[in-house]
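User: what does the whole thing look like in 3D?
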Amino acid sequence: MSSTTLDDRTFYLVEEADDHHPESGTLLGFWIYLMSDALIFATLFATYGVLSGAYAGGPTQRDLFELPLVALNTAILLVSSITYGFAMIAMQGDRLNATRAWLAVTALLGLSFVGVELHEFAGLIAEGATPQRSAFLSSFFTLVSTHGLHVTVGVIWIGVMLVQLGQRGLHAENRKRLMCLSMFWHFLDVVWIGVFTFVYLLGVVQ
Amino acid sequence: MSADTAHAHVSRRVYLIGFAASVLLTAVPFWAVMTHAFASPLATSALIVAAAIAQILVHTVCFLHVNTRAEGGWTLMAYIFTAVLVLICISGSLWIMHHLNSNMMPVADNAMEGHL
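Assistant: Here's the predicted 3D structure for the full assembly of 322 residues, as C-alpha cells:
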C-alpha cells in the first residue's frame, strides 16, 4: 500500500493465513443464500396476507382446506427433518451405509410430501378452485407451490448426493455438500411452519 | 481443523430434544384448531402463532445449529438481519394494504354510472 496509484489499492480485507477456514466460505455463503430465499418467501407470505380475503365470490379457506391432509404433510416433513439429522450423525461417525440409508429415507419422505401436496392441489383444481379463480387462490398456489418446488429440488439434490456417496464415499467435499443440504432441508421445514400456521390453521380459524 | 468442524458437530440428544419439542409445538395448534378447543377464535389464533414462533426458534437452534459461535457469529447476524427484514416486509405490507383498503372505499357501480 506504499504506492498511491488506483491499481494498488485494496478494497477488501486480506485474510490472515492462520485465520483461514477452508470450510467456512461455502457454509456461510450457502447460509446467506438461504437468508435471501427467506426473503422470497417473505414477499410471497406478504402477498398472500394481503390477498387472503380477496375471494372474488369464490371459495374461502374454510370451504377448501382439509386439515387432516395438512397435518399428515406436516408430520411427514417433521419426521424427514429428524431422519436427515440421523444422516448427519451417521456422517460424523463415518458410517457411510447408515448415512446413505437415512438420506434415502429422507428422500422418500420428501417425495411423499410432494405427492400429498399434488394430491391436494388436484382435489382443489377438480373443485374449480384453480389459481385463476381469485386473487386468494393465485397467491395461495404461488406460495405453497414455491415451497413444494423447493422440496422437489431438495429431493433431487439428495438423489445426486446418494450417487456421489456411492461413487466417492464420505470425502471432505461430500461432507460439505451434505452440510449445505442439511441447512437447505431444515430451512424448508421452517418455511413450512409458516405455511401451515398462517395459511392453513389461521385460515380455518378466522 | 477441530475448531472448524465445531460448527458441524451435531449431537443426537440435541436433535431428539428439538424433534420432541417440534412434535409438541405442531400437535397443540392442530389439536386446538381441529377440535375447536377454545370458543374464542382470537385465543386460538394467539396460541397457534405463539407455537409457530416457538417452533421456528426450536428448529433454528436444534436443527440449523445457529448459535453465537458458528462461523464467528456471522450466521446469527445474518439470521437476525433477515428476521428483521422479513418482519418489516410482512407487517409493513399488511399495514399499508389494510389502510389502503379501509381508506379507499370501492366506488359502487351505480354511483359510477351517475357520473358518466
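In plain terms: Residues 1-65 of chain B form one domain. Confidence is low (pLDDT under 50) at residues 1-7 of chain B.
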